[in-house]
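Curious: can you check?
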Amino acid sequence: MEVDAQHQSDPSDIDRVYVAGAGGTQVPLSAVARITKSNTPAPVNHQGQYPAVTITYNLTADTALETAATMVTKAVARDASAGHAAQPSSRAR
């Protein structure tokens, strides 16, 4: 995901990021994600020679891992930019 440079100058700009919700409505990212600030290095992870990101998630007590993994895979496939690929890891536990 990328936003215009004018919205990258202040951490509070994240409050203006919306994602697709049920029925195509726009939902503030803060409604579905917990955002915390911390000091960390800025590494670029790689999968082979390609830059990579890791998506982590927690399950509710009544959600099967396979169901959640399928939902995440579908969401990534739907929202990935052209030229980007999604490849799930077998490390889900």
